[in-house]
Amino acid sequence: MSLVVCKFGGTSVASPERIKMVANKLIAKKKAGDDVVAVVSAMGKTTDELVGLANALNTNPPARELDRLLSTGEQVSMTLLAMALEAQGYHAMSFTGRQAGIRTDGTHNKAKIVSVRSDRIMETVDKGIIPVIAGFQGIDDNDDMTTLGRGGSDTTAVAVAWGIKADVCEIYSDVEGVFTADPRVCPRAKKLDQISYDDMLELAGAGAGVLQMRAVEFARKWNVVIHSRSAFSDAEGTYIKEAPDMEEAVITGIAHDTSEVKVTIRGVPDMSGVAAKLFSALASNQVSVDMIIQNVSESGITDISFTCPGGDLPRARETVERIVPTINARTYIVDEDIAKVSLVGTGMKSSPGVAAKAFETLGQNDINILAISTSPIRLSVVVDAAQAAQAVQCLHSAFGLDSDSVFVETQLSAEEIAAKMNKGR
Amino acid sequence: MSLVVCKFGGTSVASPERIKMVANKLIAKKKAGDDVVAVVSAMGKTTDELVGLANALNTNPPARELDRLLSTGEQVSMTLLAMALEAQGYHAMSFTGRQAGIRTDGTHNKAKIVSVRSDRIMETVDKGIIPVIAGFQGIDDNDDMTTLGRGGSDTTAVAVAWGIKADVCEIYSDVEGVFTADPRVCPRAKKLDQISYDDMLELAGAGAGVLQMRAVEFARKWNVVIHSRSAFSDAEGTYIKEAPDMEEAVITGIAHDTSEVKVTIRGVPDMSGVAAKLFSALASNQVSVDMIIQNVSESGITDISFTCPGGDLPRARETVERIVPTINARTYIVDEDIAKVSLVGTGMKSSPGVAAKAFETLGQNDINILAISTSPIRLSVVVDAAQAAQAVQCLHSAFGLDSDSVFVETQLSAEEIAAKMNKGR
């Protein structure tokens, strides 16, 4: 008998029918003898619709009001799930973030959890009642509703699991768990039975969309075991935990990310201070620069490239256009058709040959490397977007990750999954 | 300079455009030097939609969960109104029932207000910020959201007005105020400048839909001045207040109500205990009996009729069908096409000729009286529904209530107004 937190995202509660499925999942666990605590996101597109209403009245809505408005989405889904459980004869009670004891700082729209008081939740569990908690929200010292920003519901689930000392925090989504690569791109990808927090963070940071980084960071800090699994099957998913018994794979998985863009400034005088001028201007204009590439100087003139998220491109263009004349550069070009492919593995630290093997593999496959960046447990290369799938596949084979069998798709189409992976709270 | 509570119903905030209109009304008051506090209902059909969602999951949803679900409607409208005010450069903050300090008992779905703590609202007003309060909701001793049931938002407004010692509680709706009769039925009806709480309560109880009785009862108890007025014009409406200087009109107004039905049990043995058996059975089956008519007995056999709300008819039928054989009555018939027409006036108490004059007037107009009931300040008659308008008009003339001019309709159609008058919270 375990105490389990079960978090369901927006697609899992998108309709009354899906909410009934979620209720059945919780009931099955209860019948198996576990105590369960549910955490839910808002139904399907609710949040987008609420943002639309707000923007119809105020193009820059006050953060406090927006938080309260958005928080209604989870209040709806939590009460509906409680009703669905009651309809099946299982006692359930819904709780807002405030009622669940989730206190945050006052940074509306991206509040940070400062404490979790679990008394009321545990009293409820002890009475045999299933608590259903609104994800994504908390209360600040002004007694005002706050929201936690992107990944908020996953973070709520991990925080609650920590607060009530749950055995595991199950995060249900439309994918079966964490894979060695995206199965839609690499059909021989394998589901991992377990992965360390560090590897998971690097994979998530490099584009793997299964879990929100913030929730994983919270889990690592407080040592909460996460079980990432599918809402649409009963198969075991992937455990994310600190595991001393875990064999340190050189490469745990390969992530790819097509959301970045590359900007190249041409004909830059190779003088000290020029790069500083460019990058401090980008930073002060809120452009998140990821990689930087500076070519070898020829006769005092060079090119500087950098990559940044596609969403930052308008600000990047604006900055670069302003800076190019002031540094006497010739011009700039933007390449949106790039992909970042990242090898992640804690074991990489003690295996110096990874980079060489990766470059060799890509070279043999005629894949041109446009940029490189590394961390102690990650190696990322930028390639043409058109070659991204091929790059993932050949690296996946070269590092011995291929499964014997080809992954079987879930019932959702790739487009549906892709759409879901790119949002969620 | 006054302190004014302004309450806007669901139709007034049904769309972003209407919410902007409401914001402009509040701003105009603010510009005129008043301090304003807004109270809002949920947007348009929101509540019905939420009930529909709940019923899709549970045909008998738990009251606590339903309250939380329904309360999200007002959370949405209050934040949107605050955003609309901010967009125009006026500071505003929304407050849930809990944040506004409205404490209730724990009777979910029809909670009663037990106290109002106005500190936070008044601090907000004192800072020059417009508070926007969610109507219809409060918090109970378990820290759970409650809703106040029908007429709840009007009651919230009156309770807040009392709590902050406002000069007046303005209740905006689609009608211009309280009329001597329904202008759609009686074109010579006049808008009243003021009316006493007692007269207003009798009119509301007799079918006049402008204000919720419960809010008027609260206002009478705590002496809160209500100003019932139109959300779609700037004209003064009707003040509801205790006014010693008010001339006690014999008849203040005439209400009509077509929602009741009449049930007649035929061939009842005229024996003691028979009526008691019938009406106690009806009472225990939650049928709200309004009027009772027993015909003169002929040879020990009589007829008994009663009226009740149309919504109680299924339960009334079920009861009567069960009782008819046990009291050896012959049969029963149901008449749904009836109307109750009520004369209301505090001055009636000291004018004994009202009933005689009313019966005479109806007789001269060939209107048959099916039943009669009275209170010290009300005389109600039941007539055929087809003659209801004629009855209202001839009584309106006979008691000198006719206006010189014919009422000009608001921009809403009669159907729209009728639909609105029959609901609202």
From TrEMBL, chains A, B:
State one molecular function term (GO): aspartate kinase activity
Any Gene Ontology biological process? lysine biosynthetic process via diaminopimelate
SUPFAM superfamilies recorded for this chain? ACT-like, Carbamate kinase-like
List residues of the ACT domain.
263-337, 343-415
An example of a Gene Ontology cellular component annotation for this protein is: cytosol
Give the binding site residues for substrate. T47, E74
Reactions accelerated catalytically = L-aspartate + ATP = 4-phospho-L-aspartate + ADP
Q: Where does ATP bind?
A: K7, F8, G9, G10, R184
Q: Which UniProt keywords apply?
A: Amino-acid biosynthesis, ATP-binding, Diaminopimelate biosynthesis, Kinase, Lysine biosynthesis, Nucleotide-binding, Transferase
- Metabolic or biological pathway: Amino-acid biosynthesis; L-threonine biosynthesis; L-threonine from L-aspartate: step 1/5; Amino-acid biosynthesis; L-lysine biosynthesis via DAP pathway; (S)-tetrahydrodipicolinate from L-aspartate: step 1/4; Amino-acid biosynthesis; L-methionine biosynthesis via de novo pathway; L-homoserine from L-aspartate: step 1/3
Q: Does the keyword ATP-binding apply?
A: yes
PANTHER family for the chain: ASPARTATE KINASE, ASPARTOKINASE
Say what the protein does: Catalyzes the phosphorylation of the beta-carboxyl group of aspartic acid with ATP to yield 4-phospho-L-aspartate, which is involved in the branched biosynthetic pathway leading to the biosynthesis of amino acids lysine, threonine, isoleucine and methionine.
> Which family is this protein grouped under?
Belongs to the aspartokinase family.
The name of this protein is Aspartokinase
